């Protein structure tokens, strides 16, 4: 089974997300969208006829979205078969969150790595 196919997003915390996002816009040219983050579009061998996106976003320092991790960052990895991968990770003894989100943006699941960092796994909708 193919596991990670790319990076779907990079997320981190800040005491002042708006100011930090503005710093990235001014100094690094990151095109911050109205939703507060950026989307980097690309194509690749896994989606030659489609469009891939890597999201970038700064969260408030007190967000609980990264919980139970206490890290200041979270990486989102694109995967080909979320449910299959989550089952394999459970069989391998990994700490997998029970919750799975399924929406028009795709399927999302979470696992914690050995250091307790929350890792988001994302199966994009077909064609993305």
TrEMBL record:
Gene3D superfamilies with a match to the protein in the record: 2,3-Dihydroxybiphenyl 1,2-Dioxygenase, domain 1
Pfam family, one: Glyoxalase_6
PROSITE patterns, per the entry: VOC (PS51819)
Positions of the VOC domain: 6-124
Source taxon at top rank: Bacteria
Protein name as it appears in the record: VOC family protein
Lineage of producing organism: Bacteria, Pseudomonadati, Pseudomonadota, Betaproteobacteria, Burkholderiales
